[in-house]
Request: fold
Amino acid sequence: MADKISIEGISYIVERIVERAREAVEESRENREDSFKDGRALAYYEVLDILRTELSVREISLEKIGLSFDLERELL
Reply:
């Protein structure tokens, strides 16, 4: 098993999470009364926010990773 993951590997993982987050937000917006769907969308936002913060601290380009968009505007 590899000890390190490439930027491309991180980017792929983030891309999958972002895709699911966008789906969760869309589902949440379609049914505002479903608190589970709201919570799911918020959880994806929180995961991506943590990733963005940790990658920034490590000076990894958010643009290369696919996290340079406005999380709050798009996912909240």
